[in-house]
Every structure is written in structure tokens, then in C-alpha cells.
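Annex B.
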Amino acid sequence: MSHEDVKKEQAADARKIKDLANKDATFGMTKGAAMNRKHEVAMQRLRDMNDPTTELGKATLRAAKKKAKEQQEFLLRTKGIDVKQPELQPGVDPKTVLCEFFKHGCCAKTADKCKYSHQLDIATRQQKRSAFELPSEDSIEMWDQKKLEAVIARKHGQEANTNNETTIVCKHFLDAVEKKLYGWFWHCPGGADCKYKHKLPPGFVFKSELRERLLEEARARKTDQDILREKLIALKKSGKNTTPMTLDVYLEWKKERVDKIKATVEASREERIKNNLLTGREII
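C3H1-type domain-containing protein: predicted C-alpha cells.
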């Protein structure tokens, strides 16, 4: 092959490459408004499938439940595995626990609707995070009132619900504080968009300080014996001539009082006899 022939072949190859580069890659495909319409139909179908109120959504949910049930029966029949969700301890976030149904491929819910996590490496993530957790000294059990308020202000001060008009405090937040489950890594079960306040209500007293305050008040509170003792001391200091209370003195006082009551009753009866005001029972 001569030098001229080689140059001709190279020129032909260059023309082919140029033609391929200029060729419309979307030739034969749906374009323009038709393409947008097709995309809208596909997106609407996807929304209907995820909406349990539509017929398509109900059918999709029924199919998912049926498939999950068949998978559970298959596992139980072939491998003897009875899938059950793990029991959670109080204060444990379900999203930090792997869904057992998802683990065995038979969860009928999606990741965002399932109570548990659909991340197979969630246990590894929790172990990694525990390596960076603060020491036990920086926990709610070691905090006083000021420290707790400082942590709450730092952790929840920038939340979106801080400027909400509501004065209702989140029940999950209060429950976590009272049970000493609150901490730096606590997350509200109501989600990041919880509409209630994550702050201590006015007049809130930390339990440890409340106990100390009640003990101090109990120590400072005077009993009846203390009050009586103070009155006796004050009476002695007054210098008045008083009679000490003994059993004989009390019995004598009681006898005089009973006699006085009887005399009053008898005088009243005589007065009614004189005026002819006796009742039938008194006459009999």
C-alpha cells in the first residue's frame, strides 16, 4: 500500500468519526412535550403507588404484604425461622435497631415508614459512634440545674421550633429528662420537625436539687413538739404563777367540767318543765 492510499484511508476514517460526532444521539427517542408528558405520567404513577389512599397504592400495599407473608411462611417452613421484631428498652431509638423482617427480606414497609432501621450496617455504625461518645462523667446523672439548662440551650437553641408560638413542652423531652435518659445524643421520637418546645418549663426543678430542697425544708420545719416546747419555755420565762399539768389536776378539771355540763342540762330541763315544753320522750 502506497503512502497516498494510507492518507486516503485516514481521511475516510476521520470523516466517519466526524459524522458520528455530528449524529443526533436522540434520534428516534421521545422528545419535547411528549417526553415531559411521559415523565409526568411515570411520576404520578409512582406517587399513586406510595399513597395508600389511592387504588394503586392499596393494591401495591396488598401485594407487598402478601409477598412478605409468603416469605415469612417460607422461612418458617424451610428453615424454622419465626421472624419477630426485637423488644426495645425504654429510651432506645428504634431507628438504631435493624428491622428483623428487612433482614430476612420480608418487610412489607418501606424504609421511611418502618419503625426500625433498614440499614444492614446499623450495628457497625452504632459501634463506631460509641467510640466518640462523651465519658460517663458528662451525663445527665452528673449534671446540676445550670448544666442541664446549658446543654439544652446548646443542643436545641437553633431548632426550627424555637420561635413557635406554642408554650407546650414536648412530652418526650420531659420524659427523657425525668427518667435521666436525656443527653448529648438524645433525639426526639417526634422527629427533627417536632412542633413542641424542647426546653424546661418555667419553675422546673431538677430532681436532685428538688430532693435536697425538700430535705432542707423538712429539717427546718418545726414539729408540734418543738412548738409546744417553745411555748413552755416562753411561759416559764414570763414568770406567771401557773399550775403544772399532772394526772390528778387533769382528772379534777374533767370532773368539774362534767358536773358543770350536767348542771346546765338540768337547769335547761327545769326551765322547759316550768314552761311546759317537754317532749313526749322526756315525759315518758
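The longest helix spans residues 247-274. The chain has three domains: 40-130, 136-218, 224-283. Further annotation is deferred to the next reporting cycle.
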